[in-house]
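Hi support team,

I submitted a single chain yesterday and got back a structure, but I'm not sure I'm reading the token output correctly. Could someone confirm the output below corresponds to the sequence I sent? I've pasted both exactly as they appear in my results page.

Thanks,
R.
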Amino acid sequence: MNKTSGQRTHVNRRALLGATAAGAAGLAAPAVAQEQATLEWKLVTSWPKNLPGPGITAQRIADQIELMSGGRMRVRLFAAGELVPALGVFDAVSAGTAQMAHTASFFWQGKIPASVYFTAVPFGLLPHEHIAWIEQGGGQALWDELYAPFGLKPVMAGNTGVQMGGWYKREIAGLNDLKGLKIRMPGLGGEVMRRLGATPVSLPPGELFQALQSGVLDATEFLGPWSDRAMGFQKVAHNYYSPGFHEPNGTGEALFNTTALDGLPEDLRAIVLDACRAENGRALAESDWQNAGSLKLLQEEDGVTVRPYPEPVLAALRETAADVLAEFAERDPLAGRIQESHQAARERLAPWSSIAMRNFMSARDG
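Hi R., thanks for writing in. Yes, this is the structure output for that exact sequence:
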């Protein structure tokens, strides 16, 4: 090999190494830029961390957003009390302390009374009926209008299904047993109970077991057998009542700071909203499956007695609920429109649910 050839080879090798390094740098630069551009959100919840049902749903939504975005967006979850109190998430997202929350709309009854309709109202819509109302019957537009003054966008985000009626330390044989009963029952169900002589007590989920154990509460409702068993209520109360007249539906609520949501790129905004929407079906299926198994354990291993509300009690609850809802609709024009829309959805859907589901279940059970 002559000198010139050797020099040329050396130069070519250097050029090749330089090109390779430049190419590697070119590949690395977008990756670094992408890492630097990763968007991080805070998600605050009203639930204990990983609580079966809504706690798991909240974490799954956060995980799905990061997965579906390819890591471009990360959502850090703060359970109740870690960043803000369980019932402080509405104000936190409104103020921009967090960009997102997972909660339930009936917690805001004291601030915006009509919010209760977007979780459940007594003797109202079943889960599939509620979803139909929100998505097909104009419910979402009314929900948006209700929360707009607070700079919030609400959406459905999971569902714990049909609820149970609650845990009672003593048996409810008639209406007299409701007199003076200290019960945790949020939403309009609590107002119905109050009018029948009970004393509703407002407490966040994480405080319910201790309150029931200590005697601050005589009774409490929460969700269904899966979540309720995880909370430990069966250790201090053995009368488990049905039906959950106050919450025939268990829609979870995702709250978004409107400025933060609108500021997302279009694809990330779609990912965030679709992650919530997908969780509706997934969580409902999970809750139905797990509730069935947990109910069996409560009865066979924990000594819990599942009782129906006596018919005279149910009749009084039904009649009182109708009065509460009628008066509620007169509070303000928007509450009236929400009540009217909800009632119209019930009147449209109930006959079909009865024919399609009640008749089939009667036939299946024999």
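A quick pointer for reading it: The longest helix spans residues 266-300. Let us know if anything else looks off.

Best,
Support desk
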